[in-house]
Amino acid sequence: MKEHPVERAARIAGGYKALGDLLGVTKGAVHQWLDEKRHVPAAHCPKIETFTGVSRKDLRPDDWNKYWPELESPRTAEVA
Predict the structure, then answer these.
(1) Where are the alpha helices (DSSP H) in 1-80?
(2) pTM here?
(3) Mean per-residue pLDDT, 64-77
(4) Is it the case that residue 6 has pLDDT exceeding 60?
């Protein structure tokens, strides 16, 4: 089974508590982001990406281009 992006970020950060501490949220909040109905808040994604290397596209696969249109490649923009 493929590792969830939040799980990967937490592993790289040193655990759910460590990731939460980095973001100023509880480890419980981080766990909630594993639920497919509860996305990682967009405001936290750039910091997660910077510190763990887990991309904003992976953290918010359904709507990343709404928040970060600059991440669209010229090819992606042509298709849209």
Answers:
(1) 5-13, 16-23, 27-32, 45-52, 56-59, 64-67, 74-79
(2) 0.86
(3) 83
(4) yes
